[in-house]
Structure formats: structure tokens, C-alpha cells
Amino acid sequence: MFAAIDFVLKTCEIYVIVYIILSLLAGYGVKGTDQRWFVLANNFFARSLDPVLRPLRVVLPKLRVDPAPPVLVIIILAVRYGVTIYSGPAMTM
Amino acid sequence: MLVYSACPLFILFIKLFWLGMDFAPLWNASLVIRIHAFAAVAALLIGVAQVALPKGTVPHRTLGWAWFVLIMTMLITAPIIHGVSVGTLLDPALCYVPSNQFFWNARCAGIHLLTLYLLLVVPFTPLLARVGDIAAHRNAMITIWFMSLLVAGIFTMDSKRIMHQILFAS
Questions:
Q1: Which of A1, B92, B166, B169 has its CA 20 to 30 A from that of A17?
Q2: What value does the mean pLDDT take over residues B17-22?
């Protein structure tokens, strides 16, 4: 049960990290980021994460670079820590 | 800011020229530790230069990108020194619960959590300058400089660590 929850959270974490990498590449104007497939992929990630990121944007300071995605990764990781620590003593460093 | 950052450097130079330092522990250490130490010291010095030099100029941008590369090198090599891969930082493996104890007794490797936080934040800081949010760029850079180099640097002065052996060899 706890392993399944952790797997889902890990998938969400990787999903947000992929979005962070795509938005960073677009932000820095890396060559190729203006191509249609890249814009479509970036928009897909942005729209799918928008319902989760919007409440964070309300709380976080207004910057010209969106600080919400890295904060979301930290929140997901904190939840994973909570789940793993609560689930039992199998945790090792 | 410059005065605060210059004080530890002044002490460092006093140690270097008056009392001498023993670099043997560093040369005898593994390659990853040497790369980490070089990147950290270079980033510390470039950080001071960046604060002192005029902003927005070509030298500022060039040194800034050099600083970015050095700080990322330092952050990527930091967990590897302790046998922790960068991917492990994204897993809940940096804490453990001692046997026969409850979860609120969990102990965490705080320095690796700081590394993870900085790895997530540092790539955004040059972007802030690029989009024209200069105040946020300045604040972020100064905070990262303090957290990653000064605060973490103070912890390297622990008596069991290589930096302590170098600085306080005599």
C-alpha cells in the first residue's frame, strides 16, 4: 500500500522535474525550443500542472520566473518522506 | 556584504601567508573531493568579485556563468563524496529511523537536503536576470552564496574533515 503511494508520488515528482527542465530550456532560449513539438510538449505540461501550481502561485512571492514548480517538488518529496517514515523501519540512509 | 565576505577571506590569507597551510590531505584525497574543493573555493572568490564589480557588464555575465558552472559542479559532486548519487537525493533515502523507535525520531542528512534545495533553485537564478527581475536575481544570488559557500563552508571546518586539516595543520 505505502509502496504504491510512494510510486505514484515518485511519478508525479519526475513529471514536475521534466516540466521544470522544459521550462528552463524555453526560458534560456536554447536552440530548438521554438519548434512546434517542443512548444506543444511544454504547453501540455504547463496546462496539466496548472491546477496544482495555481494555489502555490497565490502564496509564493510574485516573480517574473515562476517559483512554484521547484516548491511543488519539495512538497511532494516532503510527503514521500512522511509516507516512508510513517510506513515503518525499512528506511535506511 | 563585501565587508562580511572579506573577513573570512582575510583570515584565510593570514593563514596562507603567515602560518602556512598543509595541502597534503587534499592532494591525497579522491578526485571528486579535489574537484569539489576547487569548485567551492573558486566560487567563493568569484562571488566576492561579482559583488564588488559593476553589474550588467560583460565581465559580470562571464564571471556569473563561470560561477554557475562551478556551483553546479560543487553541488553535483557534494553527494557523490558521501556515496550518495544525485538521483538518490530525489528519493526519501536521506533520513532513517533508528530501530525500535518511532517515526518522529527520524534523523536526516541535512547537508544533502540543502544540496537538493540548491540544485532545484540555482538554475533559475540566471533566468531571473535574463527576464529583468534584477532585485530577485541579486537576492537569490546573495542567499545562495551565503548558504552554499559560507554556511556549508563553516561546517567543513569540523575537526574530522579535510579542510580543517588544511587550515589548522600547524
A1: A1
A2: 65
